Amino acid sequence: MPSLQFILANLTRARLRAIFTILTVVVAFVLFGLLLSLERVFNIGVKVDGADRLLVANKSSIMQPLPVGYKDRIAQVDNVEFIAPFVFMGAFFQNPNQPIVLIATEPRSYVHMVPEIKFNNPAERDAWFSDRASIMIGRELADKYHWKVGDLIPLYSVVYPKQDNSNTWTFRVAAIFDTNKKDADTKSAAIHLSYLEDMRLFGQGTIGWYVVRLKDGRLAEQTGARIEALFANSPTEVKAGTEAAFTQDFLQQVGDFGTMISLALSAVFCTLALVVANTMAQSVNERTSEIAVLKALGFGDLRVFAMVYAEGFIAIFGGGLVGMAIAGFSIPYASEQIHLAENMTFLWNDLVWGALAMLVVTIASTVVPASRAMRLKVTDGLARAA
Q1: Are residues 326 and 364 in the same domain?
Q2: Residue 248 resides in a domain
Q3: 92 and 189 share a domain?
């Protein structure tokens, strides 16, 4: 077996080419680590049993409305403790690059439904309750735009225009909320559903979805089935599940992200294999006479094959491990920046998948150049040099 020093000397002979090849491998495995974690977010199974809250929405799509009258009927289902209606406003501040998660709901019901919400000043909460034209915003959102209690903020809704055909809604900041739950999101805002009902151009008598709090989370699946059965064969059927399940359903309606990510990974690694294979083939072609000399000095065919294969192995595994490490350190930041992928995590088995991918790319890109070197005849190699 050739020495490691000899293999590294051959690998780095054309240093610029070696650097670019290894950087290509690094970038490919950074993408691999990030996309692997993102794909898991979109395709992970969602458990219903044990959930203390269920989301009830239109069966055809969460973007389709439900009648307001469903609230009282759902409230009578066994194991339902409390129910609150919600409407998605689809808003942004100043320009579309600054989207706001804005919902309309019943303020007292919302605070009762989401006990993790915390008001540092109870007077602010009461002010939000009493002023229908006011808005409650999360701490992170307030800090981002430097909003404070008493400010008037204009928000543009892409979903609901006002009765005067304007899409700009102006609200007074009545309260800023925090949370007593670790890592909970405070980037959202909420307004009065009754105010939206009176002021919007269309959609009166409908809501977006209901959130149901259960008495016993262990019966979540059975309770969801009862709610669905209650409206079976009606003009507007419903689907009941966890918030996480509906997030996945929404993403699937936008597009099959799992398939798109798989296709992206396939494209990345096909390109990577071609790049490395081209580099190795060029390297072997430039060293034809040297390989012939090595064989004349006693290097066997398998020893030559191992030498070339080891060069590709070191380049791919070295760059791949660096890329996976960068991905692992980047995922917490990416999770914070991508709102729909807040559950991105780097798992140890990602390293196993990464190692398997490195092995596959090594075989795909190195076996052919190494086989050419192994089959090279001494006379042919020396004749080419002459």
Answers
A1: yes
A2: no
A3: yes
pTM to 2 decimal places:
0.62
Q: What percent of the chain has pLDDT over 70?
A: 85
State which residues form the domain around 285. 4-44+257-385
DSSP 3-state assignment of 171?
strand
How far apart are alpha carbons 183 and 332 in whole angstroms?
12
3-state secondary structure of 175: strand
User: Which residue in 219, 378, 376 sits closest to 308, CA to CA?
Assistant: 376
CA-CA distance, 47 to 167, in Å (whole number)? 38
Question: Residues 83, 209: contact at Cβ < 8 Å?
Answer: no
Q: Please return the burial class of 139, using the count of CB atoms within 10 Å of its CB with bins 0-12, 13-18 and 19+.
A: middle
112 & 15 share domain? no
138, 139, 134: which is closest to 171 by C-alpha? 134
Whole-number Cα distances in Å, 223 to 74, 190, 238, 240 = 10, 28, 13, 9
Residue 217 and residue 310 in one domain? no
* Greater model confidence, 202 or 343: 202
pLDDT, residue 125, reads: 94
Residues 222 and 371 grouped into a single domain: no
Give 72-130 as a DSSP string: HHHHTSTTEEEEEEEEE--EESSSTTSEEEEEEE-HHHHHHH-TTEE-S-HHHHHHHHH
State how far the Cα of 370 lies from the Cα of 361, in Å rounded to an integer. Answer: 14
Same structural domain, 207 and 325? no
Last residue of a domain, one of 189, 217, 241: 241
The larger pLDDT score, comparing residue 85 to residue 343, is at 85
- Residue 113 pLDDT: 87
